[in-house]
TrEMBL record:
Its EC number is 7.2.2.6. Part of the high-affinity ATP-driven potassium transport (or Kdp) system, which catalyzes the hydrolysis of ATP coupled with the electrogenic transport of potassium into the cytoplasm. This subunit is responsible for energy coupling to the transport system and for the release of the potassium ions to the cytoplasm. It is a multi-pass membrane protein. The lineage of its organism: Bacteria, Pseudomonadati, Pseudomonadota, Alphaproteobacteria, Rhodospirillales. One of its GO terms (molecular function) is P-type potassium transmembrane transporter activity. It comes from the Bacteria. The system is composed of three essential subunits: KdpA, KdpB and KdpC. Belongs to the cation transport ATPase (P-type) (TC 3.A.3) family. Type IA subfamily. This is Potassium-transporting ATPase ATP-binding subunit. GO terms for cellular component: plasma membrane.
Length: 683
């Protein structure tokens, strides 16, 4: 199977521009145009102007009318062109992704243990089917590993060449169709039906085919329609003024004036800005399920980050056994070992490894064992071995558990244990307390390392006015040590999935927008509740379904860039809206004096632009109005530059650049065009 990655597209890719030029004409279809009310109005004016021009063929203003009609059509075409380019770029990315869809052959098995398989095309697989994948096989569909462990080459979707481990149980069980098994053998339970795979949905989204207007876009569109109506009234009153003074303004001039005044610039670029924001995210290897969540990302106030794996490197390793004074270290190690035999978390595996290397422990030959797997809810794991309950886990969970066994109140924790727990916690380690029956044995020290560079990233977020909160199942001491070292604003310790969900709801009740990322199935409710929930691609299928974004690289720190891309999208739209409206205001003052100069010579004082004639003024304005859309397409697609700063600083800077710029540019642009029009004798 050949592997393609979406390549960096040039803004001036000839194939995309060619197709977009054709699509711009197709998009003249009124049924499509109506979705953009400002452009629909412009289209109506173009039709009207064309009709008037034909009616008045040979009249005094005929030549100018022909030109005005042509430029009105260009205005609509240019806006369609902008949208078509954005869509074309999305389609190009989708095509590259589609290249990764293989015509893989699935090896379907009847059960996990079954040795013989039936081959069938990957498209025929249904949710619930079991398939076996061996070294060299392309995984035929999205699913969860239900047996075995394998290294998988996921470069087809992530671009990362190093193979990753996928195994049953735990939070690394999800596999994506189109990726390839490099070593070993796994049994995968398919989780999606034909045509609904992750890749299928991803393609549909980046193609823009299923794109819905976001709530913000709808709100802005309503505002633009409102402004257009105001200008409709303004223009409608002009003939009265004119006839009062005994001059008649040709109808074509009036309707052209209307188009120059309504917010055609932002109206024409709005959807291109939205599509481009989505594309920027895809280029960043993050797939968003809706445009709405990209926008929400730009408005985030609170960022919840897991400790393990996000702030620290993850895969905590057992480093030492700390027995209580009346316990011998080997007994503690043995209990820890037994309780971890069926624990396939990185923590459990590292405990096995440490016990083996320190005391050469091996699995007992006989004896009935019932394993209790780790859960984020109980925050412990263990085994019932020959009637004895051995447990390990978070200190508060285990002490409460033991107290209940012994019928004591949880208060009576031995001082010595408290000290051992604190010793580990103060250096940012995770203490796991081990108990056998109702007897506390000691502590396992799990070491965790803070990711390099994470402090600077939190500083950046603070500059953006975003609060960072670290979430951990660990005890408050460990949490405080890591939080201080990493520089987060706040932390939630001894967190269970319920507490996490509650925290999100609390922030949301206070009117804040919350983003989080997660990978485990127990993160799914919180991912669904958060305004922006980013699931790791390596995570479980449940997490990927619950989130509204999926990070193909499974890098939890990317949440930071996602927020920046969202902010950039909002800023691009805000800046271009400011520019567009300032432009329209400026045009009003540029054109009105020129139109009425003949009848009201007093207006000469306002006629700062000194345009050649009323005809030339209106023609120049309509040409400028069309060309500015083309000129701003690159900015709409690339987005305005975003530098982390507070909202007020950004607002002030943007008002200055795009507001004042928007007022000044039409005066210069229209004047230049007017000089050209006059020189060439066009009006
Ligand atoms: N395999 C395990 N067996 C028993 N207890 C564990 C195991 N792994 C972790 N714990 C304990 O349970 C607590 C909660 O674990 P959990 O994975 O939910 O949170 P965390 O790893 O501390 O934080 P994060 O949400 O960042 O992963 C841990 O802090 C630890 O004390
Ligand atoms: K306009
Ligand atoms: Mg964890």
């Amino acid at each position: 199977m050949s592997i393609h990655r979406p390549k960096e597209l040039s803004l001036f890719d000839a194939a995309i521009l060619g197709q977009a030029a054709r699509d711009a004409v197709v998009k003249l279809d009124p049924r499509q145009l109506i979705k953009n009310p400002v452009m629909f109005a412009t289209g109506l004016v173009a039709v009207l102007s064309t009709a008037l021009t034909i009616r008045d063929a040979g009249s005094e203003h005929f030549a100018v009318m022909v030109q005005i009609s042509a430029w009105l059509w260009f205005t609509v075409l240019f806006a369609n062109f902008a949208e078509a380019i954005a869509e074309g770029r999305g389609k190009a990315q989708a095509a590259a992704l589609r290249g990764t869809k293989s015509s893989a052959v699935a090896k379907k098995v009847a059960s996990v243990e079954a040795r013989d398989f039936q081959t069938l095309p990957a498209e025929k697989l249904k949710a619930g089917d079991l398939v076996v994948c061996e070294a060299g096989d392309v995984i035929p569909g999205d699913g969860d590993v239900v047996a075995g462990i394998a290294t998988v080459d996921e470069s087809a979707i992530t671009g990362e060449s190093a193979p990753v481990i996928r195994e049953s149980g735990g939070d690394r069980s999800a596999v994506t169709g189109g990726t390839r098994v490099v070593s070993d053998r796994i049994v995968v339970q398919i989780t999606t039906n034909p045509g609904e795979s992750f890749l299928d949905r991803m393609i549909a989204l980046v193609e823009g085919a299923k794109r819905q207007k976001t709530p913000n876009e709808i709100a802005l569109t309503i505002l633009l329609v409102g402004m257009s109506l105001i200008f409709l009234i303004v223009v409608a009153t002009l003939p009265g003024w004119a006839s009062y003074s005994g001059t008649a303004i040709p109808m074509v001039f009036l309707i052209a004036l209307f188009v120059t005044l309504i917010p055609t610039t932002i109206g024409g670029l709005l959807s291109a800005i939205g599509i481009a924001g989505m594309d920027r995210l895809v280029k960043f290897n993050v797939i968003s399920k809706s445009g709405r969540s990209v926008e929400a990302a730009g408005d985030i106030d609170v960022l919840l980050l897991d400790k393990t794996g996000t702030i620290t490197l993850g895969a905590r390793q057992a480093a030492e056994f700390l027995p209580l004074s009346n316990v011998n270290e080997r007994d503690l190690a043995e209990a820890a070992y037994l309780s971890s035999l069926a624990d396939d978390t990185p923590e459990g595996k590292s405990i096995i490894a440490l016990a083996k290397s320190r005391f050469g422990l091996t699995e007992p030959k006989n004896g009935a064992m019932t394993f209790i797997p780790f859960s984020a809810h109980t925050r412990m794991s263990g085994v019932d071995f020959e009637g004895t309950e051995i447990r390990k886990g978070a200190s508060d969970s285990i002490t409460a558990y033991v107290a209940e066994k012994a019928g004591r109140t949880p208060g009576g924790i031995p001082k010595e244990l408290v000290l051992a727990v604190e010793r580990v916690a103060k250096v940012g380690g995770t203490p796991l307390v081990v108990a056998k029956g109702d007897r506390l044995l000691g502590v396992i020290h799990l070491k965790d390392i803070i990711k390099p560079g994470i402090r600077e990233r939190f500083a950046t977020l603070r500059a953006m006015g975003i609060k960072t909160v670290m979430i951990t199942g660990d005890n408050p001491l460990t949490a405080a040590a890591i939080a201080a070292e990493a520089g987060v604003d706040d932390f939630l310790a001894e967190a269970t999935p319920e507490k996490k969900l509650e925290l999100i709801r609390d922030y949301q009740k206070g009117g804040r927008l919350v983003a989080m990322c997660g990978d485990g199935s127990n993160d799914a409710p919180a991912l669904a509740q958060a305004d922006v929930g980013v699931a790791m691609n390596t995570g479980t299928q449940a997490a990927r379904e619950a989130g509204n974004m999926v990070d193909l690289d499974s890098d939890p720190t990317k949440l930071i860039e996602i927020v920046m891309i969202g902010k950039q999208l909002l800023m691009s739209r805000g800046s271009l809206t400011t520019f567009s409206i300032a432009n329209d205001v400026a045009k009003y003052f540029a054109i009105i004096p020129a139109l009425f100069l003949a009848s009201y010579p007093q207006l000469q004082a306002l006629n700062v632009m000194n345009l050649a004639s009323p005809q030339s003024a209106i023609l120049s304005a309509i040409i400028f109005n069309a060309l500015i859309i083309i000129a701003l397409i690159p900015l709409a697609l690339k987005g305005v530059k975003y530098r982390p700063a507070s909202a007020e600083t950004l607002l002030r800077r943007n008002l200055l650049v795009y507001g004042v710029g928007g007022l000044a540019v039409p005066f210069i642009g229209i004047k230049v065009i007017d000089v050209l029009v006059a020189t060439l004798g066009l009006a």
